[in-house]
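testing teh design pipeline on a random one, pls ignore if ur not involved
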């Protein structure tokens, strides 16, 4: 039986806010500390590299989304331009990796708001609440994302203001800020020499994933009005805002804490407001981090559901996941299945330090998108083919900087997916042959 289609209800502002909710998540509250450990003050160069790779990936994604305005993102692009296997591996990497990321976001949300004994129950409730919002329709998701994004941006503005005050000092000369002396041109050069380009590339790899949320816009391509125009514009706007926000937060954090202080911090943005003497702001920053995690969870579940829907339509995942709710026009079975898996992970596994393969999967996902964009004919191109090639090379370079355990986990996940696909194809072929021989 034919399923109802998803409804095109998202405008430019809706698409931008969903992308921002995915990008400006809990990562911005934590990513700068490990980046500083890898590169010191050189993390600013790492941020620039990550932003360039993200820009190349976003350009390829926008170009493809204008041609294929359907659910699934790089899964659909890879399948249409490169073949079934590249598309499947991109989609599988996204679904599995981002499901683990959802569990981590839920745990992060609870960690900022509750004592350890209550964190898992609260994380489970958060997943259920976010899934319920998504099931009510994509416009509800967009409205919730708007509220979350505005709140998080206000908190980050507070952090940048505090960091600038700590950096410059009370007299405006820079003599009193705790990080002012440790973040000057001379020390910056010394940090760069000390950590080298490998450290800078590692920091770029850590910071890249904070930008990866623009893919949520592409995975919702079937629900955007005037997609060939709206999707490229919304991706560019969302990424541009995210780059400016991260640059401001990174500079303020380095200025307030210095490279060593930032590297040693467990909650860097909380420490930034403390360095300014604004202890009253620390609870606000903690709540902001929790809300940001919730926003990322909201956008991620929506994106995973749409990718699972696209794969199920092609029989790459169980066909039941392709069902669309007749009233709310959402892939309700896929989203419920994703929520159930996330709840199971939250309740049983500590994922905060065990989702390295998710990073591997994200880079593979965008690698496939860039390769797909390279194959597009001149009539469909919006950006130079060289930019898509640079994005593909950048993804591979960042993969090479990942810890070996993360690479091994990513390869293992791909192997499981490949085995599942091969077995499913054999079962489906035998079933079809049996039906063909049945009188």
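output:
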């Amino acid at each position: 039986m034919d399923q109802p289609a998803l409804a095109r209800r998202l405008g430019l502002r809706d698409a931008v806010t969903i992308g921002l909710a995915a990008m400006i998540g809990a990562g911005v509250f934590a990513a700068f500390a490990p980046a500083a450990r890898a590169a010191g003050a050189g993390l600013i160069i790492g941020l620039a590299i990550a932003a360039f790779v993200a820009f190349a990936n976003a350009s390829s994604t926008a170009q493809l989304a204008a041609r294929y305005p359907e659910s699934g993102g790089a899964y659909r692009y890879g399948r249409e331009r490169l073949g079934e296997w590249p598309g499947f591996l991109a989609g599988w990497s996204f679904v599995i990796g981002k499901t683990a990321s959802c569990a981590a976001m839920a745990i992060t949300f609870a960690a900022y708001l509750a004592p350890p004994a209550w964190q898992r129950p609260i994380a489970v409730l958060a997943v259920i609440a976010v899934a319920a919002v998504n099931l009510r329709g994509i416009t509800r998701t967009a409205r919730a994302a708007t509220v979350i994004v505005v709140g998080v941006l206000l908190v980050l503005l507070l952090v940048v203001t505090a960091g600038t005050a700590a950096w410059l000092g009370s007299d405006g000369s820079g003599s009193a800020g705790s990080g002012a002396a440790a973040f000057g041109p001379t020390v910056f050069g010394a940090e760069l020499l000390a950590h080298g380009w490998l450290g800078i590339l590692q920091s770029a790899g850590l910071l890249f994933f904070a930008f990866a949320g623009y893919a949520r816009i592409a995975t919702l391509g079937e629900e955007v009005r005037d997609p060939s125009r709206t999707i490229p514009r919304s991706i560019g706007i969302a990424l541009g805002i995210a780059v400016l926000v991260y640059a401001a937060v990174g500079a303020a954090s380095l200025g307030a804490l210095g490279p060593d202080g930032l590297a040693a911090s467990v909650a860097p943005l909380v420490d930034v407001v403390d360095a300014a003497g604004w202890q009253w702001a620390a609870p606000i920053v903690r709540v902001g981090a929790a809300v940001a995690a919730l926003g990322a969870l909201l956008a991620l579940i929506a994106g995973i559901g749409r990718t699972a829907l696209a794969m199920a339509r092609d029989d790459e995942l169980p066909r039941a996941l392709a069902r669309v709710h007749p009233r709310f026009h959402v892939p309700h079975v896929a989203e419920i299945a994703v929520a159930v898996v996330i709840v199971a992970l939250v309740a049983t596994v500590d994922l905060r330090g065990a989702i390295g393969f998710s990073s591997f999967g994200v880079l593979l996902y965008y690698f496939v998108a860039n390769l797909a964009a390279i194959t597009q004919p001149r009539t469909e191109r919006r950006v130079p083919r060289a930019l898509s090639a640079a994005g593909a090379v950048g993804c591979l370079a960042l993969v090479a900087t990942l810890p070996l355990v993360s690479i091994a986990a990513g390869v293992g996940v791909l192997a499981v997916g490949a085995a599942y696909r091969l077995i499913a194809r054999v079962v489906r072929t035998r079933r079809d042959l049996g039906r063909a021989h049945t009188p």
